[in-house]
Each structure stands twice: as structure tokens, then as C-alpha cells.
Amino acid sequence: MTRRSMLFLFCLLLVLLTIAPAPAQQLSTAQRPKLNAYTTVSPARDVNGKKLSPADASANSLLTTFTYNVVSSRDGNSYTGVMVGQDPFGGNFTPTTVTSPIIPLIITTNSVAVRLSSGGILATAKGVTTFDPTAADTACLSAPNDIPLALFRQSPIFQPANFKFGPTFVGKTQYIDAFQRGNFWQLVSGTNYHTLVSPQTFNALSLNLAANDALAIPPGFLGSCGSLGIVNINTLGPILVNLLALEGVKTSQFPIFLLYNVVMSIGEPNNLNKCCVLGFHGATGSPIQTFSPIDFDTTGLFGPTIADTSIAAHEVGEWMDDPFGNNPTPPWGHTGQVAGCQGNLENGDPLTGTNIPPVKGSNGFTYHLQELVFFSWFYGAPSIAVNGWFSDNNTFTSDAGPVCQ
What's the predicted TM-score (pTM) here? Predict the structure, then answer.
């Protein structure tokens, strides 16, 4: 394993050790999550493994970004960060479009779970299972909307829909663009301010993983409608970094590795206590390449709110507002998937598992989109967002409050 790969994985492990599952919701037994859902981030680092400042990361990137400076009313300190797009504070309202290659991953595992111990360890046997986002799935989906890749491309992550946050219509546009307009509404309302992602589908890539690196939970096991793949993130992470170069993705682009009903574990895939990471956004190399593996999940194992594009909303939203994973904020926490304290602008983590109202696409499929928190939630009131809100479905009615301890 290369030094860079070891640093990449070490960073992921440090972040995962600081987070915990969201509090259980009031759900029926059938609806309750059978497995815990997490996300994480791999920040941009230098050759020595030190996390880069937002300014240094931006200087080493070809992404279209702007730098913001803000004094937080939560602690009185000044903060500088970088976001994708044009500067809403500077009055530059030229629309930005970033190409987003979608790289479907066809994952084949060579072991299957046969028994679960009281300690959360899966006993396994030999067995081949393939997870293919380009193929029709009639177990968890229904025709004509039964091909995950097509559903992903047709989703509000990439296609326009009408978005209204409370009483305010913010536009017919992609979800993350609608969020970003709402994020800075008091600065950009009535203007042509947009930050869009343009999908470009690449050929699918096939990965055949060894039995000790990946396994499959079979249909019905733990209540899944279909199979669920679990892949060791220590195995998958370096593979993805290598694929970025092999596929010729440009560093000005934001590639997404599309997984279908495949999640990641920290270490051994048979240990459910170290599962499940459904997506992360990372930044690697020089110039810096941002990227994200994202699970399009239909298993039902993570509860009713973690489904189809909820993880995509989380990761694409975090990439847009914290592309290099290093925008500093006053410490916050004890919410969403964060049990302790964090000091970064990861706008999905505080509300992991909480969604906006479902959105029906033009294909008739009903999409799930995670609620995201606004800029002002991190840095403090008063809010510059739409309606003076602090999250885009008004779950948070005030900022993050006193500095987390």
C-alpha cells in the first residue's frame, strides 16, 4: 500500500471514530433501521499528510470556487472557507456548471452471510453475488423505474424540479442548486445565481473482490428486500483513487462512483459494528481531484428515510459547500450522526436521516432527498438564508448555539 493510500485511510478512520448514528425515530418495528447509516469525508492533504487550509487547497484546484470570510456570531471569531461556484457575497451571479462524470461500479462479492452472532459478527460461506447499477432490479424496484443508473440520472440531483422552501419558491432547478440559492437567499434572490452539476455517464467498471474484502447479505436476511453488499473501505478507497487517473477524469470535474445497494465497512466487512458508510466525499492528488462514492440504496435496511438519492443529496451538498473537506466552523455537534463535536462545514451531517418532503420526478418515481443545514447555522444568527431559516425544511429553527464541548 502506498503512503498516500495509508494517509487516505487513516483520515477516514479518524473521522468515523467521531460519529455515531442518529437518534432512533418513532417508527414501527418494520420501519426501524436494521443497520446504522454513516457518511464521512476525506479532506485534502499535503504530501506529509497535513490537512490543507481552504486557501491552499483552492490554489491547488481547477474547480470553480469562491472564498468567503465571515465573523461568527457564535464565538466572535473570523473564519475563511471555500465553496464551489460564484461568490454570492461579491455580487457575481454568473451561473456555474460543473461536469459530474457518473461511473457505475459493478461489484462482485465472493462470500455470503449465513448467520449473525449476538456480537454483530456475520458468519459467512462461499457465494458469488453481483451488484449492478446498470441492470434492472425487480426485487426492490418496479418497472419501468427499475434501473438504478437511469433513476439516478433522472433524479432531482441532476434534473430540475420545483422547489419551495416554506412559503418561498426558490426555483425550478436541481436540488443542490435550490439549496444553495436558499443558503444565500438574502443576497441572491431575484438573480440568476446558480451552481449546477451536469451528469456525464461513463462506461461501467467491474470489480471482483476477494471473500475477505467484501460480502453479501442475502435477500430476506435482516429484512432486506434484495441483497446488500458490504465492502471494506480500506480495500475500496485506494481502488477508487487509482480509477480516477485511469478513467481520465478532469480535476475541474466532480466524478461520482455509483454503487447500488453496496455500502462500506471500516475494516472487516463481517463486523456489523463497523458498518455502514453509504458515501463519502474526498479530495486527493495535485492538482486536487474531488470525488465521491455514493450508494443508491433500495434495501430498506437503513430505515425509510435512507433511500435512493438521500445519500446523494448529502454528499453532493457537502461537496458544493465544503469541496476540500476543510472549511472551519465554530465547534458544533450532538445532532444527526455526530455524537461528539465537529468543527467543519459538513452541511449534511447535522441532519443525517432527516429528509425534505419527497419529490416526484418526471419519470413518476418518488425520490428521497436529505434536508441540509444552511451556512448561517454554522456561523450564527441572524440567518441570511431563505425565510431567515437555518435548514432547508426548517427542522433547525435556530443556529448551532453555544460552541460545542
Answer: 0.92
